[in-house]
Specification:
This protein is an alpha/beta fold. It has helices at about 15-25, 35-45, 100-110, 130-145, 190-195, 215-220, 270-275; strands at about 5-10, 30-35, 50-55, 75-80, 115-120, 145-155, 165-175, 250, 255-260, 290. The strands form two sheets. A seven-stranded mixed sheet has the order 3-2-1-4-5-7-6, sandwiched between helices. The chain has a three-stranded antiparallel sheet with strand order 8-9-10, with no helix packed on it. It is globular, with a radius of gyration of 22 Å.
Amino acid sequence: MSTTNLNIIDLFCGCGGFSLGFERAGFNILLGIDIWKDALLTFSHNHKHSRTLQADLSTLDPKDTLRLLDNKRIDVIIGGPPCQGFSVAGKRIVDDNRNKLYKRFVEFVDHFKPKAFVLENVPNILSIGNGIIRDSIVSDFSAIGYQVEYKIMTASDYGVPQNRRRAIFVGFRNGHKFSFPLPYETPKITAKDALSDLPECGVTDGDEYPKECDSEYQKLMRENSTGIFNHPQSENHRHNLKGSGWRKLQRSSTGITVYTQSTHCLDTSEQREAEFHNRHRTPPSFPLLIQPHSDSP
């Protein structure tokens, strides 16, 4: 599918990270819909030519969005319905009312009849209730004319320095079968590749980077950047200065040590290398909140 002049609606859009990827791939993001006002402010900042609608998608009629679309056709609908009812934690009840929000996604697709849709959610959506939710999603979209494919994908397989796994559903009208891209054959981007150019201490928004880029990934992230932002000193920040206010809570059987507070930052190259020793090998999963040991898997 050529992305030229293809229009998108982003449901449950949040801050707009999902649609930002589509925008960079050449799609036009016409509208982002979410109930969270603050998230929509960030969405608007990231998508300056897109419109937003603050609304409860559990009750919103698709027809109520037409006034914001300027009679433009909708080619793709994307989104990630809230996943509290699908996740590992909690009761995992298949008929949880929150799970029904994906039905609203189906109703929007049925109304606009786009060429394709992309729905993302937690990996467990494929297995909960012996696959009843997965099968329901496939059945619902098949009933309105879409060929549905699904797969669990890991972000670090595609150039992102994070081991984030998500279930992705892709549907095409008229029987077209989608083929998921193969993982990159290049080495994975490590936490060091991503973070080694950042200062250990907090900085004022707009401050310059303290050093030149250490990796091609950092060069990419600095494109159009005017400085460092959103990098304050955090009370959850890990450091190696014993007796300086940090509290080690536990070391679990998985080789993870959890820290809760810090008022100091590292100040030597040796300490800095110890702080990020594991990022030579693996992409980060839970930055700032945990510190993997050298013998962790």
